[in-house]
Amino acid sequence: MLAALGGTPEVTAPHPHNDLCAFSPADKAVITAHLDAGGTTSYYGRDGELREFEDELAAFFGRAHCVAVNSGTNALHSAFFGIGLQPGDEVIVPSYTFLATVSPLFALRAVPVLADCEPDTGTIDPEDIARRITPRTKAIVVTHQFGHPVEMDAVMDLAERHGLKVVEDNSLAFGATYKGRRTGSLGHVAAFSLGSTKMVSGGQGGALVTDDPEVMERANLLGHFVRRSVTEVSSPFYRRFVTTGYGHNYRMHALAVTMARGRLRRLDELVASRHQRLERLSAGLSDLPFVEPPVTRPHVHRGQWGGYTASYDAEAAGVDIDTFVSALEAEGLEVAARGYHPLLHRAEFFRTAEDGYYPAQPWHAKRLYREGDLPRSEWHADRQIAFPIFLDEPLELVDGYVRAVRKVVEGLDALRKTARQAASAV
Ligand SMILES: Cc1ncc(COP(=O)(O)O)c(C=O)c1O
C-alpha cells in the first residue's frame, strides 16, 4: 500500500539524502594542507594558489583569461559589466533558470527580455531568441540548464548576424560538452558559480573566463581595486582607474580557492560518480508510464549535471502533480513539484513596474510579464519533478528512489479513487 494511504515508506534513510554543502574528506585534506603550510587568508593580488587556480580554469576552458570572484552572481555581474552593458540595453535571457543568471542585470539597469525554452530540454530556444531581437538588444545570456547545453551553434549564428555578445552561465554544466566542445568556451564570456551546491565548489565562489582582454580588464576593475588591477589592467584607457576600481570587492576567499581547486582536480571522478547514480535513476524510470527521465540529446554530455528533473504527465495520469509528489514524499523521497525554482516571469519583480529599484524613465522601462507569455516554459516547468543530484550516496538509495516512484505510479488507481472520494465528500 502507498505510504500516502497508510502503507510503509519505501525509503527510510534520514534527510537530507544529498548534502551538497558538506565538506568531503578530500576537501578537508586540501584545506588542512593549506593551513599547515602557513597559507594566506586573502589574495589581494593575482598571487599564489589563486593565480594557479585561475590559470587552470582558463586552460580547462581553453580561454586566455580567468577572473575568480566570490560568487557566481558576482561572476555574472562582472561578465555583464565586462561586455559593457549600459542602462536601457536589452539582454535576452531565459525565464527557466536560477534568478542569478539574470538579476545582476538589474544593477546595471539593463533590461532583461525573457525568452521561452525548448519543451524537451528546458534550455533557451534559439528561435524564440530570434523573435525577441530589437535594435536595442546588446547581448544574449544562456544557461546550460541542469548540465544540458543550449543549442549554441544557432545562438552564436544569431549573435554574429546581429552583432550581439553571448554570455554563458555555466554554473550547472561544469565539464559539459556540446558537439565535443566544452560549454563555457562557446560564447564571448562564460561565468559560473563555485558555490556550495556546485561540483567544483569552494563553499562560496565564482569565476569568469574569456578571450577578450577588455572584458578581463573591466571585470578586474569592477571587483578588484589596487593590487590586482595594478598588474592586470594595462590598456591606456582603463589603467588610469586602477587605484579606485569601479566600486566593489569581489575577491574570492583563500580557503575557497584551495577547496575549489581540489575539486577541479577530482572533477572526472566526481562527474563519473554522479553520472553513475543519475543514469541508474533514469534507467529505473525509463519504462514507466507518465514519468519521463530528463532528455539528453545525442550530441551533448551533461558534465556536472547540476540538476535532475523528471517530467510528469499529470493529465494522462489523472492525478495532479502536487498529489503525486506528496505521495513520493510520503515514500520518504526528497522531491519537489515544478522544479527547484519558479520561472522568472512568475516572480513579482517581473510582474510590476513599481519595484522600488528601476527608475521610472521610459528608456529604463522594464519588460513586464503575465501568465501565458512564455507558454513552453510554463508547460515544461509545470511538469518537472526535482530530484536530489546524487553524488556519492549509496547506490541502494538511488534504487530506493526508483522503487518508490514505481510504487506510486503503480498506485495511481488508489490515489485517483481517494481523490474522487474526497471530492464527493465535500
Ligand atoms: C544557474 C545559476 N546561475 C548563477 C548562480 C549563482 O551562483 P552563486 O550562488 O554562487 O552566487 C547559481 C547558483 O545556484 C546557478 O545555479
How is this structure best described in words?
- The protein is α/β, with parallel strands linked by helices and 426 residues long.
- 38% of the residues lie in helices and 13% in strands.
- It has 16 helices and 14 strands.
- It has helices spanning 25-36, 48-61, 72-82, 104-107, 126-132, 152-162, 213-223, 227-232, 236-239, 254-265, 267-285, 314-317, 321-330, 375-382, 395-410, 412-425, and strands at 65-69, 90-94, 111-115, 137-143, 165-169, 177-178, 181-182, 189-193, 206-210, 291-292, 300-301, 308-312, 336-337, 384-387.
- The chain has a 7-stranded mixed sheet with strand order 1-9-8-5-4-2-3, sandwiched between helices. A 4-stranded antiparallel sheet has the order 10-12-14-13. Strands 7-6-11 form a 3-stranded antiparallel sheet, with no helix packed on it.
- The longest helix has 19 residues, at 267-285.
- It binds pyridoxal-5'-phosphate.
Compact overview of the structure:
The chain has 426 residues and is an alpha/beta fold.
Keywords:
about 425 residues, alpha/beta, Aspartate Aminotransferase, domain 1, Aspartate Aminotransferase, domain 2, 2 domains, seven-stranded mixed sheet, four-stranded antiparallel sheet, 16 helices, globular, binds pyridoxal-5'-phosphate
CATH superfamily heading of the largest domain: Type I PLP-dependent aspartate aminotransferase-like (Major domain)
Q: What structural class results from the helix and strand content?
A: alpha/beta
Mean pLDDT: 96
- The DSSP helix count reads 16
Question: Which small compounds were modeled alongside the protein?
Answer: pyridoxal-5'-phosphate
Q: Unreliable runs, pLDDT <50, ≥5 residues?
A: none
Give the C-alpha Rg. 23 Å
What is the C-level CATH assignment of the largest domain? Alpha Beta
Count the E strands: 14
Order of helices and strands: HHEHEHEHEHEEEEEHHHHHEEEHHEHEHH
